[in-house]
Amino acid sequence: MRKAAAVWALLSVVAAGRVGAQTGLRFEVTRDAALTGGANSGRVLVSIGPKGSPGPVFRSGQTGMNAAPVLGRDAANLAPGKAVTLDSKAVIFPIESLAKLPAGDYAVQALFATNRDLRSLNAPGNLFSDATAVHLDPAKGGTVRLTLTHTAPPETLPADTASVKYLKLKSDLLTAFHGRPIYLRVGVILPRDYDKEPTRHYPLRVHIGGFATRYTAVGNMMREGSGFRKLWAADDAPRFLTILLDGDGPFGDPYQVNSANNGPYGDAVTQELIPTIEHTFRGIGQPYARVLDGASTGGWVAFALQVFYPDFFNGTWPSSPDPLDFRAYELINIYDDRNAYVNPYGFERASARTTGGETLFTVRHEVQMENVRGDGDSYPYSGGQWGAWNAVFGARGADGKPVPLWNPQTGAIDHAAAAQWKKYDMRLYMEAHWKTLGPKLRGKIHLYVGDADNYFLNNAVHLLDASLAHADPPFVGEIVYGPGKGHTWYGITDRQILDQMSVATTPPK
After folding, report:
1. Using CA atoms, how far apart are residues 203 and 187, in angstroms rounded to an integer?
2. pLDDT tens digits, residue range 161-184?
3. Which secondary structure element, helix H or strand E, spans residue 449, and what is its range?
4. Among 48, 191, 407, 508, which is most buried by a count of CB atoms within 10 Å?
């Protein structure tokens, strides 16, 4: 990266920032001496948002060339009163270097991410500064001093309502794996007239949101006037206990399955969380009365839980699932391709497109955003989409961290690492276990995907579909494609899904 010419300059800073003469533009982040306790090691981010932005650092993670620039650097001992500097040597996104930042007025904010159990930027214990108004000009240089003066508050569950409840359950399985207390969180939506029918027991609908959706989103699902609330309140609507699983964990979204890095999430959900919910809220508590649904990340989880626990669940309705066949990990064939960023023809590989086919951003672009957020300038520790996938599907290294599928800077694929992913390749898993799995899944899979999926997820569905076409015993289920349809397309309405779930959860005779 180029360094700006050495000049002595004053940088106009409003509020908390102070300026010193310095070679090049740099940001000096200090932890307020009053913020005692908590961790001293973590990841420091500095976000350079548009003028007037109230909290630009909490929007770090957006893609596109119009995203607010953000810099990242590890801090091994950012004790109270200590400082860490981010300058032209720090990794940056989306611009090429700090020297390329256009001169102008900005809102600058720093964050120190230290929470090991939750990767969301506002996780409890993370420290952050005020957003500070500054005029920045890389050609003139200068030092912007930002002080971490705030601590994200301890976690508190939202207040329960008559129809929405929130639970936080310590998982013995995950606690044993990580060697520290790990909790499962869930939002619960009670059926209509739940309190009026105290002896009635209900089937369970397990809903999983899109990537990193928190359990608290049930409050939005049940807001006044929402489509879900209207459906839930309809006189003739099927009655279910509905739960929303939590999309945050030690490496980001845990995808609710057992993994070498996140621990036994699948077992924790099926052995600890769901039995607790069914006991507490009058669930039927039988396999025939449990169904799954979700889109995108939720689609993959809803599919994978049904496949990995075929005797525990009785049907799944996923849409646009994340890759079900890693020969189409979006557009990457992890087994044969040499590079994740560059395709076999020498061009940058797209990660997202419009339904019309225009590239929205590339894999290299998106992973660079995660490299900025990730410990060690490395996406596997970012909590972002590619990092979360890597933690769920990949091996655990001797250092206790996820083994990267590819080099974070070059994109070169490690095929030894790729071999460890095969147990989560749904096509391979189903082929290997089909003799026993096929009969258990008969009629339970109802899969939908748009054939212009914005993340190319339809490609993996087609590969799985081609495999199931030759399955013995025959596959009995639904795989439905939407011509020209994009991400999260469903071929049926929410009410039709509920009606199908109601039929599936009718007590066996």
Report:
1. 16
2. 999 999 999 999 999 999 999 999
3. strand 446-450
4. 48
pLDDT tens for each residue of 32-55: 999 888 889 999 999 999 999 999
CA distance 465 to 93: 38
Look at the chain and count its residues: 509
Q: By the 8 A CB rule, do 186 and 160 touch?
A: no
313: its two tokens: 């669940």
**DSSP-based three-state secondary structure for 297:** helix
DSSP state of 301: H
Concatenate the DSSP letters of all residues of 84-127 into one string: EEESTTSEEESSS-GGGSPSEEEEEEEEEE--SS--STT-TT-E
Q: Give the containing element (helix H, strand E) for 148.
A: strand 142-148
Residue with the two structure tokens 């596997």: 380
Distance CA 85, CA 127 (A): 16
| Rounded CA separation 237/265 (Å) | 32
Q: What separation in angstroms does the CA of 105 have from each of 49, 102, 133, 136, 293?
A: 9, 9, 7, 6, 46
